[in-house]
Amino acid sequence: MNAKNLCAYVSDKCPRISAISQFSTCTPSVAVVMGIYNLLLPLANMDRKDVDSAERTLLKNLKKQLKQQFTTMIKSVGTLSNGNAPLFALSGVANKSAGKNHNEKLDACEFKLVTTHGKGVIYVVAKAIPYAVNYTIYYGPGAVYDPETWKP
Hints:
Elements: H1 3-18, H2 30-44, H3 53-81, H4 85-89, E1 111-114, E2 123-126
Antiparallel strand pairs: 1-2
Helix pairs in contact: 1-2, 1-3, 2-3
């Protein structure tokens, strides 16, 4: 995210956070984040060709500070909301969902056999299954799987 977009994002979220009384004790405060925002905004709105090297360095440092302080503030807001998702949603910041374990039994994959690579050679081409870590291919006589005669 460039400095101009970061400023736009912060200017959208900070008034929402400051309007909620439960978030008044967040650390750093909205005032601190907005102070950095106010220093960065004029530089972010300048045309790139008009920025000299000293201003470019200042812009880079202020952008880094704003991003760090805003992220810390959002983490504090998350802590203050104490698991209350609707309260956190009032801040307007996207909520990352928890990761999902895929431990269930997966469906059989679609595959085709290729027998055109020489006598006695069979290739198995399988369509990938999302979340599968590995595959075990069984082979044996007949068209129906028999655990007694088929081998992995």
